[in-house]
Amino acid sequence: MATQPLTVSDPEGQPIGYVVGGSLQSTLRVRLTVPPQTIQEGSFVTIRSGNWQFYGTVVDLQLGATDPRFADEPSEARLPRGLVDLLHGQTLYTNLEVLPKLMAEIGPEPGTPDYEAWRSEHPEGGRIMSVRTVPLHHATVRLAGAGDVAEIFGEPSERNFVLGYTREQGHPIPIDLEKFVQRSAGIFGATGTGKSFLTRMILAGLIKYDQASVLVFDMHNEYGYDDIASDTREPVIGLRTKFPAKVRVVGLGQDTRIHGRTPDFNLVLAERDLEPEDIEMLTRELNLKETTPTTLAALVQSFGDRWFHEFRQMEVGAEETDENGKKVPAPNSVAYWANSVGTNVMAAEGLHNKLRRLFEKPYILPDPPEGATIQQVIKSLEAGQHVVLSFGKFESDLDYLLVTNVLTRHIREAWVRKTEAYRADKSKNPPPRPLVIVLEEAHKLLNRDLAAQTTFSTIAREMRKYFVTLLVVDQRPSQIYDEVMSQLGTRISGWLGDESDIHAVLSGLADRDQLRGMLTHLQPREEVLVMGWGMPMAIPIRSRRYDERFWNEVLGKTDLSIEEGLQKLGF
Amino acid sequence: MTINFVEVHRQIQQAAGEAQREQARLRDEFNRAWETLQTWADRLPDLGRRVEQALRYNPSLRCARPGQEALTTRVPAPPAPTQGLLLAADGSNANPNHHDRIPFGLINIGLFGYDLGHHRPPQELIQSEVLLNQDLYDDLGTIGEERIALERDLRERRALLERLRDETVTPLVTLTDGPLELYRQPREDPEFHARFQDYLRVLTALAAQGVITAGYVDKPQADLVVRLLELALLDEDELAQAGQLRPLRGITDRALFGQLLQPGERSALFGLQSTTAERFRQAAQGQLELHFFYLNVGLAGQPKVVRVEIPHWVAVDTTAVTILHGVLLQQTQITPNRRYPYALIRAHELAVVTYQDRQAVAAMIEQEWLNQGVVVGEESEKQRAKQDLQSSSRRSAR
Amino acid sequence: MTDQPLTSSTPLEIGRMLRADTTRCVVGCRAGQPHLPPLGSLVRLPVDDTYQVYGVVADIQVFDDGLTRQVVISPNLDPSVILDNQYNRNLPLEIGVLFVGYEHNGRLSHLLPPRPPLVLHVLYTCTPAEVRRFTAHGRFGYFRHLLRATDQPLAEVVAAHLQQAQACHAQGGNPHWAREAARELITLLRDDYATLATVLSALADTELDL
What we know:
The structure holds three protein chains of three kinds.
Chain A: E1 15-22, E2 28-32, E3 44-49, E4 52-65, H1 68-72, H2 81-91, E5 92-105, H3 113-121, E6 128-130, E7 140-143, H4 146-153, E8 160-166, E9 172-176, H5 177-180, E10 185-188, H6 195-209, E11 213-218, E12 227-228, E13 235-236, H7 239-242, E14 247-252, E15 265-267, E16 269-270, H8 276-280, H9 283-286, H10 292-303, H11 307-313, E17 319-321, E18 327-329, H12 334-341, H13 345-359, E19 364-365, H14 374-382, E20 386-390, H15 397-424, E21 435-440, H16 443-446, H17 455-462, E22 468-474, H18 482-487, E23 490-493, H19 499-505, H20 512-520, E24 527-532, E25 539-543, H21 548-554, H22 562-568
Parallel strand pairs in A: 10-22, 10-23, 11-20, 11-21, 14-15, 14-20, 16-19, 21-22
Antiparallel strand pairs in A: 1-2, 1-7, 2-5, 3-4, 3-7, 4-5, 5-6, 8-9, 8-25, 12-13, 17-18, 23-24, 24-25
Helix pairs in contact in A: 10-11, 12-13
Chain B: H1 5-39, H2 44-57, E1 63-66, E2 85-94, E3 105-115, E4 123-131, E5 137-138, E6 141-142, H3 145-164, E7 172-177, H4 190-209, E8 212-217, H5 224-233, H6 253-260, E9 270-273, H7 275-282, E10 290-296, E11 305-311, H8 312-315, H9 318-333, H10 342-351, H11 355-371, H12 381-389
Parallel strand pairs in B: 2-7, 7-8
Antiparallel strand pairs in B: 1-9, 2-3, 3-4, 5-6, 8-11, 9-10, 10-11
Helix pairs in contact in B: 2-5, 3-4
Chain C: E1 13-20, E2 24-30, E3 42-48, E4 51-62, H1 66-72, H2 79-88, E5 92-104, E6 107-109, E7 122-125, H3 128-136, H4 143-148, H5 154-171, H6 177-189, H7 193-204
Antiparallel strand pairs in C: 1-2, 1-7, 2-5, 3-4, 3-7, 4-5, 5-6
Helix pairs in contact in C: 3-5, 5-6, 5-7, 6-7
Protein name (chain A): ATP-binding protein
GO molecular function, one term (chain A): ATP binding
Keywords (chain A): ATP-binding, Nucleotide-binding
């Protein structure tokens, strides 16, 4: 499995201090016996007390003195070095605040007769549970060793996908992909914190693990094919490149090319795929009037699922001269239709004008060609493939909002149907394949105004009832509706500059106060805090690098092929 | 108790009046003595004659004899000698006490050697002698305090002689506290005579070695020179009553020379006329004849006059007298407030036998007596009662 | 006296005990003792064949008397007089010793001696081997006796003691004794800022390599 990227200089399970106080309700106080710089906030520590082992994270470091005068007085100037060290060693100290999260009965010291007896009574070892008592005074606190980390976070495997490494000692920290997809999850971080790399890695893990299908709304065409990183100008490998058979890159609109390449297939929306709520959802984007629902209802009343097609054909202001020489609305005009159904002409004409931006979209056709439909996407997902929907040149918010919503609504409906069939007769119908929908710039769809209207918030709330969950990727979590935020299971967050974003990421979690500190102090790059329902306990990690080595590890290659080697050398 | 203050006051008033009259008389007499000193300063042969005349009537006459120097001679302080050895001796004794269970006596002699050139640190020497059994008795029974004092003085001088026998540095100066004459009136018993002869032999030996020997009298009460002046004041026919007629009674030599001598100055050398002194004069071809001079070891405005007794062989040696003069001034300046020779202070300190010392020796004796099975007499009840009163020290260890 | 080694390789008889209480004693000896144990040094007072008491010199008092008071005001003091008073004269010198432990039947203890020595018991200096043995016994338990003596220049006594004992330990090949001792002192005194500051300041003035 993953080799550790950091030099391990400390022996495993190095003692760092002993418990001096604290409470289960808050945190444990630990007197540090090593220099404070060797420990960081968020360090994963173990506390051995009797037959129990406790696991927790460092949430604060505090400088203390047995007498404030020892701290006030800079004795370095008056006393020789050795004496100062001795003095400070005893009068000045650092206390850690450790947030205990888990505990396990691990029995007496291994190797003792007591341990053998205990082992025979507990053949499978101790069970890890939430912390519900405290260790004794003076219990030894250690930096968690690789074994402790594995005990809590699991041994790295395809299912336990290594997301990064502990900051001090570089022990691998995996996430359980099985749990990860069981609830909607989120990846957050300010721009430049490596969100999209992290997303790529998780997607690679999910695809490799292959127990769920992934649908990526790739607004900026980053995930499918190889790309150039915006900041470093380095080539970035796309998922399709590494999983050519499993990943389908879908281009929005006919003849759309992505990075100059023809996608695996194209997606065109059929006019009948659109429903009035899809339009209502665009109220703000299109600056729609409050009369819109009425008009839309009249349209559906008149034309059924062809409403969009018919409305699209109408013209505003088309007139003809009647027998009396008087100008009247032409039969193909909006006013004509409005008058005929008794709805407000002005409102209908206004809506038509506003919807003109949609009518002009080339990816909405009366009849999409075979193999370029929503059904095709659903089929691919059902077949166990993973879909990256690249928006190509349709990069506006309008495109994004409309397409993601329409597509997701249809997909969800499909999964709801399959789920109900499965529930109705489990012997005949297989369970639907779990699906993860990856939502870039999620706040555009999940903000307070829209959340209620889109399918996404429904999915987030439903959790895994219909085997569909979201993976929300965003740099402004505060803009996401807090009801949605609080439903997120696993949360992975890089550095966030804005207090409201930090608050949002932590919403609905216990120990928010402690986690806030860890989140605030993350390095702006390559460090993330992993927390939430999917994790045994929150832990800050140094994230894996998305590079050749990552792919070698994920794809199980231990050595570079000759070609890749030559390529790396620039041939 | 009530005091009759009226009566007491009357008596005090009366006494004060008498004291005032006495003081006035003494003042007058002092002035008279002073005038006589000035008048007779250089009439030394006359004075000598008068002494001889008076002696014819009164052989036990005690007074100063004029020497070669005028009565008002003032010899200024010489520089302190920078070489030689000063040896001071002092003795102390514990007398037999009939309350002791085992009677004993103790003589302790302290010698203090002071290198005048400061080439070596001072030396201390202590000689202790316990008198037991037969030592405590003579033909007349238990020996008395006088006899022990005599033994002590004799041992002092003997110790000086022994210490100096092989000494090669010069000059050698010895100093003892008190007159060179022996302590107390001599008794005409054979034991005393024998001791006195011993003493004279020691002095003779010192003389032979040329040791500058001196006795130091710290607070002289004598009126030897005053008595000499009285002889001058008497008419020729009154000389027969010399010693009985005392026109200057109450005036001391000390007062007279306190007026005459400036700090550091010594007086003229005088001979000592007394019956005891006569015995010294008759020995060793006159070498041991006693002389003296007065010396002001005090400060300006605070005269302190002491008498220094020297034997003949020193008195005739001008250099020796000068050295002695210088040594004594140097020694008395070491303790500015006390003005007493340092070497003598130290010799006394070495010699002194304290009560505790005496008790320790008594305990040692008793222990040994017991060890050897000698029957010990009972301590007297009186002694035991006194002991019980000696409360032990309750000082804390802090 | 500075020419003297800190501790003699053979025990030297210094003086005899004058008085004592539970925690300390006073030993009398002659002034001008050539081997006077320095402040802070470890000493012992054998009581009998099986029992001896250990102490640390915490106080040395030199007494004067009437003569020294006389001599001291002399305008020009002869060298002979100075030497005489320093070395000849029987002026008492009292050594204050804090009890720090005892040895009974060959077993050391850092507790206070169960009973103090008696009057006139002899005070000896300790050899380096004895110093090493006593000071390395246990975990510096005897320090509490030193630190209790607040009526003494405690910091100076402690610093002097560490310096001398370390010299003995260095002879025995242990360069770290004083460092451990200093660590223990800090532990004992860390709640007493004023005393600790004084002790550390005194330690800083030693030549100990801490």
